[in-house]
């Protein structure tokens, strides 16, 4: 099985490579939403400009709750025509794969990978944002996620996994956790809860009471406080690395670039999380 290097980012909030963070080399780039702060068409265009310029064999992007212009159902579009144009631009972009609660099969290094990407997150009581759903809509929303998904990309984290937030007591979605236990993708990339940034490996059981998964390994960031990459090795090829058991285990990564929630102190940035993985 060929080794794939996946560079993951989320919650860049108008930051770009060279202004807050840098992008390591890799085969695939994944952006798990919140490209912008206010979701204006102009902000989306700027994000698309730097995303197009990155050098990866495959670039996958989803929206997030701040990316208002991408949500055609958002009721208060300040620039209706501009929003339509920017949605058409990102959906028709030949250099970017944009997913909006949908699947896509890509081929990288001879390996076919089934992706599912979704911009949705639980509704906030504080303010209306894009791509949000109410608690009674959650089960139906995530039940549509295909069971053959290899890499799942969602803006929200699953409840109980890397969902720490200064805004919410628990920022993740319980229905998404249930869906994960059913789908068991090799990799789940998310963001949204900035303080939840990190990675872990979870083992799934067929027992109903174990649907949240059993923690196998909590990732320790080798790039914390130094110039090294934030590498999450799932190939088992390095000392201390974890060889992922496909079909039984899922590596979950919250890859928020913004280290703190808005208004919670001086702006600071995390490094992208680089995932090495072998897929059949």
Topology:
Elements lengths: L2 E7 L6 E2 L2 E2 L6 E5 L8 H13 L4 E5 L17 H12 L5 E2 L3 E7 L2 E8 L2 E2 L9 E2 L4 H6 L7 E4 L19 H10 L3 E4 L7 E6 L10 E5 L11 E4 L15 E6 L18 E6 L2
Parallel strand pairs: 1-4, 2-3, 4-5, 5-6, 8-11, 9-10, 11-12, 12-16, 15-17
Antiparallel strand pairs: 1-17, 7-8, 13-14, 13-16
Helix pairs in contact: 1-2
Task: Walk me through what this model shows.
The protein has 280 residues and is of the alpha/beta class. It has one domain (3-278): Purple Acid Phosphatase, chain A, domain 2 (4-Layer Sandwich). Helix content is 15%, strand content 28%. It contains 4 helices and 17 strands. The protein has helices spanning 41-53, 80-91, 138-143, 174-183; strands at residues 3-9, 16-17, 20-21, 28-32, 58-62, 97-98, 102-108, 111-118, 121-122, 132-133, 151-154, 187-190, 198-203, 214-218, 230-233, 249-254, 273-278. The strands form 4 sheets. A 7-stranded mixed beta sheet has the order 7-8-11-12-16-13-14, with no helix packed on it. Strands 6-5-4-1-17-15 form a 6-stranded mixed beta sheet, with no helix packed on it. Helix 2 (80-91) links the parallel strand 5 (58-62) and strand 6 (97-98). Helix 1 packs parallel to helix 2. The longest helix is centred in the first third of the chain and has 13 residues, at 41-53. The protein starts with a strand and ends with a strand. 42% of the residues are buried. The mean pLDDT is 92.
